Amino acid sequence: MRFQPALAALALLLVACSGEAPNAALTADRVWARATPPGAEVGAVYMRLHNRGDTAVRLVEVRSEAAQRAEVHTVSEIDGMMQMRAVQGGPEIPAGDSIELRPGGMHLMLMGLTQPLVDGKRFAIALSFDDGQTLSLEVPVSREAP
After folding, report:
1. Could you give phi then psi for residue 44, rounded to 5 degrees?
2. Left, alpha or beta for 141 (phi > 0: left; psi -120 to 50: alpha)?
3. Regarding predicted confidence, which is higher, 43 or 81?
4. pLDDT at 24 (0 to 100)
5. Considering only CA atoms, which of 40, 13, 23, 24 is closest in space to residue 118?
6. CB–CB of 79/42 below 8 Å?
7. pLDDT per residue as tens digits for the range 1-31
8. CATH class of residue range 23-142
9. H or E stretch including 117?
10. Which helix (DSSP H) or strand (DSSP E) does residue 108 occupy?
11. b/e map 123-141, b = 16+ CB within 10 Å
12. pTM above 0.85, yes or no
């Protein structure tokens, strides 16, 4: 009988800690990175991000030990020239919708690679959103899109 107060306190603590984030419906699929040649300083990561929640979220930070810096970039044609630019403020994923990060379009750019991205290997990446959520992913490396 002495354990009842301790068990009750533990149960309350578990319930208090099990609350979901405001929008716990963020997922990713089709995650991959293109293999890089030895000595490359930049790499790219692609995926589809899904927001099954009821409020829009914005990707505000990308971190990975595979690179010194990571940013969201987009490719567009300006005056007949293809240009790549950082997406200021990060892309928004509307409620109940998805965005695709793909070759030739919006993608995650890894700059200052700490090692080459080798076909068949994996590395970790963390995406942080404006609602406080973080999505941690294992990124498989391939020569071509899966």
Report:
1. -135, 145
2. beta
3. 43
4. 60
5. 40
6. no
7. 444 444 344 333 333 333 344 446 899 999 9
8. mainly beta
9. none
10. strand 107-113
11. bebebbbebebeeebebeb
12. no
State which amino acid sits at residue 38. P
pLDDT digits (tens, 9 = 90+) for 95-121: 999 999 999 999 999 999 999 999 999
Q: Cα-flanking dihedrals φ and ψ of residue 5, to 5°?
A: -60, -40
pLDDT value for 34: 97
Other beta carbons less than 10 A from residue 32's beta carbon: 17
Beta bridge mates, 26: 51
Distance CA 52, CA 58 (A): 14
Structure tokens at 8: 């009750």
How many beta carbons lie within 10 A of that of residue 99, not counting itself? 17
Every domain of the chain and the residues it spans? 23-142
- In this prediction, residue 132 carries a pLDDT of 93
Residue 91 belongs to what H/E stretch? none
Helices (H) and strands (E) in the chain, counts: 1, 10
